[in-house]
Amino acid sequence: MAPNLRRLILFFLVPVFSLAQTPSATPSAAVPEPDLKAVLARMDEAAKNFKSAQADVELVQYTALVEETSTQTGEIYFRRHGKDKDHGMDVALQIIKPHPKQVVINGDTLAYYDPKTRQKTERNIGNNHADVESVMNLGFGGRGQELLKDFDVKLLGWETVDGVHTAKLELAPKSDRLKQFFTRMLLWIDPARDVPLKQQRFHSGDYDITRYSNIRVNGKMSDEVFRLKKAGGGE
C-alpha cells in the first residue's frame, strides 16, 4: 500500500481521543464478568441486526518524530450495503474543527475533500479494500468471530467509559498488511450494541486514540453524508 494512502486512512479514518485512561469498573462478585468467548458471541448476535451507526467523534493523533499532538472533532457515519451481513460498509467522516474536511469510502474508492483548499483527492483501494474495511469498522457491526481471523485477541478486563460497561480488548494484527495500520490496538466495546466507545492504536512510536459519543444505531441516515462535496460546495 502506498505510504500516502496509508497515512490518509490512518489520519482521517483511524482516529483517536484522549490520553487519559478510564478507571476500571468494579465487577460484581455475585455475577462473574463474561469471558472473551461470551463477549465475541454477544457481538455476533448484535451484528445480525446492525444496519448503520453514526456518532460524534473526537480525534487525537500523536506523532513521535516531532513530539506533536493534533486534535480534531467531527461526525462519523457507517452504513452496511444491503441486508446481507456479509456485505461491505460505506464510511463517511466529516471533520468540523479545527478545519472542515470530508472523507468518504464507497466500494473501492476512498475520496477526500478539503473545502479550505478546494482540493479533492481520490484513491482506488482495490486489493486493499478488505484490509481497509477491517480496520475502519472495528466494533461497528463487525462480528466477534471475524476478529479472530485477522487478529490475536485478548480480553484485558472491563471498564466504564461514559457510563457504559465496556469490554477492553487487545488486538494484535496477524498479517503484515494489517500491521501497516497498527501494531497493537486497544478496543473498549459495548458488546450488547456491537459499538466501540474508545479505540487506541499504536504504530512505530506513534499512537492514536478515538472516542465516540452520542452513538445512534440503526437510525435514519441521509444519503448526502456519503456523497463527497465538490469545489465550491456543490456535488
From the structure above, extract its key features.
globular; disordered N terminus; 235 residues; alpha+beta; disordered C terminus; 11-stranded antiparallel beta sheet
Topology:
Layout (H helix, E strand, L loop, with lengths): L2 H11 L22 H12 L4 E12 L4 E13 L8 E9 L3 E6 L2 E6 L4 E6 L4 H8 L7 H7 E11 L2 E10 L2 H4 L4 E7 L4 E9 L2 E12 L18
Antiparallel strand pairs: 1-2, 1-11, 2-3, 3-4, 4-5, 5-6, 7-8, 8-9, 9-10, 10-11
Give the structural class: alpha+beta
Give the strand tally: 11
Shape: globular
| SSE pattern | HHEEEEEEHHEEHEEE
State the separation between the terminal residues, measured CA to CA. 29 Å
User: Could you tell me the radius of gyration in angstroms?
Assistant: 17 Å
The description of the largest β-sheet is: 11 strands, antiparallel
Strand order of the largest sheet: 6-5-4-3-2-1-11-10-9-8-7
Strand content: 35-45%
Extract low-pLDDT stretches: 1-8, 11-31, 231-235
Mean pLDDT: 80
**Helical amount:** 10-25%
The number of distinct helices, counting runs of at least 4 residues, comes to 5
